[in-house]
Amino acid sequence: MSYDVAVVGAGIVGLAHALAAARKGRKVVVIDRDTQANGASIRNFGFVTVTGQEAGDCWRLARRSREIWGEVAPAAGIEILQRGLVVTARRPESEAVIDAFLKTEMGAECRRLTLDEAQETIPALRRDALSGVLHSPHEVRVESRTAIPRLAAWLAEAHGVAFRWSTSVTRVATPRVETSAGVLEAETVIVCPGDDFVSLFPDRIAPYRATRCKLQMMRVRPAAPVAFAAPVMSDLGLARYKGYADLPEAAALKARLDSDQAEHRANGVHLIVVQSADGSLVVGDSHHYDTTPDPFAPVAVRDLILDEMDQVLDLPGRTIEEHWVGTYASAADRWRFTDAPDAATRIVVVTAGCGASTAFGIGEETVSGLFG
């Protein structure tokens, strides 16, 4: 069987490239070693984040990806569960970062909320603990564990994309693609390996000095129903997300947090809380880096995440329903890379944990570079 484009990897980055190629009228096959997406693409918040992304092409591609999510979600039967973002501040240093951010290009259409407005949006906020709140209208939130399979099914049904599940790719020498199920041919091959740096083109990937980030997340059930109109973040996010953290004003906040919350900072904890259709909350996360992260999830790290949530939200009697570990590709000096082993082959890796937020834009960029 021959194709115009073969995409290796059926996570969100691979599916985004399949969509971009299919929209160009190409005959596309997606090949994945699992029976369905099972990595970082389904172990995350499903939070398509624009505000707070690193200035430059990351922020620009996040905006474009959010637009494409808006096109794809209704067509594929993917529910948009929440819109926008609420970032809470408990310190004057955090408010200074918010004020500085609002003066940047990236702050367009964002604004401060009064505490009354904030509590109307998120009734569970601990109002007396907050000094300021930033609101962004740009974000959307989907349920990753169902959205990614629906996206794949829609690509097959609406765009004729072929899927080869439970099939590992052992070698690529475009147009020849060798797999565990035999050989296929494709004029162009796009490899989206996630955090697998050794199975294909290890010599091409190695110079980017990528490693892996392990994170902890959980599903929390409030004791009583509570509505979250938008996802929630906190001071720790202002010191981590580069759209805020790279501002000069963030230096004072980082120093304050290093003093006030040294253990949280040492474990890479920052707070994101999103709500699912059944009222439960997906909460995270932490960040630990290693070439081969261990599979364990220390309760102490989980409790640091819950501590930050409890500083911001009043959820008495909440219980934990699920707790999991995920990994994604990471690099200290870049948020993504695209490598070209030859004119017809591309390797595309997102190295900052923002694949759901940027993949559709990256897919368009890659495919446009290949086909115009």
TrEMBL record:
Xref: Pfam families: DAO (PF01266)
Record's GO cellular component terms: cytoplasm
NCBIfam families associated with the record: HpnW_proposed
Similarity remark: Belongs to the DadA oxidoreductase family.
Cofactor(s) listed: FAD
InterPro entries: FAD-dep_OxRdtase, FAD-dependent_OxRdtase_HpnW, FAD/NAD-bd_sf
Keywords, alphabetical: Flavoprotein, Oxidoreductase
Domain of life per record: Bacteria
Domain spans labelled FAD dependent oxidoreductase: 4-366
UniProt keyword Oxidoreductase, yes or no: yes
Classification via PANTHER family: D-AMINO ACID DEHYDROGENASE (PTHR13847:SF286), SARCOSINE DEHYDROGENASE-RELATED (PTHR13847)
Protein name from the UniProt record: FAD dependent oxidoreductase TIGR03364
GO molecular function, a single term: oxidoreductase activity
